[in-house]
Design a protein that fits this description.
136 residues; globular; binds zinc ion; 3-stranded mixed β-sheet; 6 helices; 3 strands; Collagenase (Catalytic Domain); mainly alpha
Length: 136
């Protein structure tokens, strides 16, 4: 799933990903782990803010081990739950794919839209619509 999502980035950028084996002696710009929250090593959590899915921004990401973490095991387990409906599974799989695309974007240097310096010129937040959406 991660490799497929990375290839999505290739379609809309000039980036070409080269996937290395774990035992490769080549150095990678982006290093990915799949730690669950309880598996994140304490030495990597100086701020205690490294649970879930995360990615370092490009300038901090390059060469770091890891630079992205996907906490996908719990989500994939939820997809295999006996009581999950087909529709719920499709939604969860779409969420996983979106998460992977999102975190790879951070590793490439993209920040959240709301953090853009020109945010107020680039787009207008309709706060009422957002509140309505999350309250329904
Ligand atoms: Zn993000």
């Amino acid at each position: 799933m991660v490799m497929e999502a990375a290839q999505e980035w290739q379609k809309c950028t000039s980036i070409i990903f080269k996937f290395l084996e774990l035992d490769s002696t080549d150095s990678a710009h982006i290093n990915i782990t799949f730690w669950r929250d309880e598996e994140v090593p304490p030495e990597f959590t100086p701020t205690g803010d490294y649970n879930g899915h995360w990615s370092l921004l490009r300038q901090f990401s390059s060469g770091r081990r890891p630079s992205i973490n996907f906490n996908l095991v719990p989500l994939l387990n939820e997809c295999e739950a006996p009581d999950i409906t087909a529709q719920q599974k499709v939604l969860k799989m779409k969420f996983i794919r979106a998460t992977i695309l999102h975190e790879i974007g951070h590793a490439l240097g993209f920040i959240h839209e709301q953090l853009r310096g020109d945010r107020d010129k680039a787009f207008k937040l309709n706060v009422e619509d957002i509140v309505t959406y999350y309250n329904t």
